[in-house]
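Write out the 3D structure for:
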Amino acid sequence: MPGSTTLGPGHGVDAIEHLDALRMMSLMKELHRMLTAPGPDRLTEAQVAALLERDGRHREGLSDWVERMARDLEKATA
């Protein structure tokens, strides 16, 4: 599909529009920053728990996944 980004197996999506992939990559990078940053921009445990269905014990796992997704999207859109 012209203007799309193809994702590999395991992503649950075969292709998305290139612009959407860039937007998602940007969003994932910002979310990773907010998960790992010190100070007032850092997501609170309550916010992380809400993202993880009230299980805030997995901040590091979510951060790792978000970072990996952003990196994969960056490679796919390059």
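Strands lie at 4-6, 15-17.
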